[in-house]
Amino acid sequence: MVSPRARFVGITPNTEMGAVDFGPVEEAAAEWTRDSTHGGKYTDVFIALRNLLTAAGDGADSSAVAATAIANFIRDEARRPAPANYDARRPGSADERELFVIVCWRIMDYMACCVPPRHPWHAALVGAVRRLHARGDESIFSSPDKAYRKWSDLFELCYNFWDSYDSMLPFEHLTNEEHDSPEARKLVTEWKNWISWFAQMPRDIATPSIAVRAIEPIEEPADSSPTKAECEFWTACEWLIHTAGTVFDALMARRAGREQAVRPRLSMERWELWKRRLAELAAPDRVDAETKQRVARAIASMEAAEAAYRAAGGRGRVEEKGEEKDQER
């Protein structure tokens, strides 16, 4: 079985639009299928998802088309009748439908590492999850004994994310001397792609607490590892770009005494510290042009969150950019 970190090694994203190498993911899926003790059909799921992405074409609406197709595929397969070998009364009885959803999450997670944030397929993978989440209280499975499984909960997806987050941090495995090696650059690129995917998940997964955990490392001066500093900086920018509104709303709710659950603690002092650290870390001699653009977007998102909160009179939750409200089918 491929280890959580090993699955990312060798995946080589191509930053050219339309050119994404899923070959290593296909190889890993084949190995997971062979090693599966529970009948997980990773290869079949990978091929289906890849075909849905490519079938959407390269038009202006290709991301939305692919996202809808993937969401509908997962929903329809999950709603199939219970398999003949499934017995709800028997503990541990295999349910291929639950396994199918878990396999989908895992394959989509791996595919996201290969796709740069600006690529249409990145938006398609994010959009598919958001469309499923938007189904709210609709039951994922057709069996009455599983009626409590709702799409709003995104069955097992959050556990998959944390397994990935804690196991594939590239700077945990590299020395300073390895920072500029081809292997290190691949790991960092995969991490950046994956973090962008994680940060754009619905709020049930990308919560303010998780966002703060992802952003807070930039509060301290960078240590001797350039890879660690680069990854932490990118991670903070990506989460602020996509979740600044949620985080600021939670901050203000806490100040008003309406929210005590955000952990670690939020404060305006901390919020302003993040903006200062981003500006400091984006000094001309420290980062490239692409990173400067992401810093500018992160700070702009923070300022937009403040403005939106003021415009709402300090009442409602700030809507995140890209939040899916539409319902397909």
In total, the number of strands is 0
Biggest pleated sheet: none
N→C terminal distance: 38 Å
In N-to-C order, the SSE pattern is HHHHHHHHHHH
The overall pLDDT average reads: 78
Helical content band: 55-70%
| Rg | 20 Å
Question: What general outline do the C-alpha atoms trace?
Answer: globular
Which class best fits the helix and strand makeup?
mainly alpha
pLDDT < 50 stretches: 1-17, 317-329
Number of helices: 11
Strand coverage percent: under 5%
3D architecture notes:
The protein has 329 residues and is mainly α. 55% of the residues lie in helices and 0% in strands. The protein has helices at residues 23-35, 42-55, 62-78, 96-114, 120-133, 157-167, 182-199, 208-215, 226-255, 268-281, 289-311. The longest helix is centred in the last third of the chain and has 30 residues, at 226-255. 39% of the residues are buried.
Which helices and strands appear, and what pairs or packs with what?
Layout: H1 23-35, H2 42-55, H3 62-78, H4 96-114, H5 120-133, H6 157-167, H7 182-199, H8 208-215, H9 226-255, H10 268-281, H11 289-311
List keywords for this structure.
0% strand, 11 helices, disordered N terminus, globular, disordered C terminus, 329 residues, mainly alpha
Task: Summarize it.
This protein is mostly helical and 329 residues long. 55% of the residues lie in helices and 0% in strands.
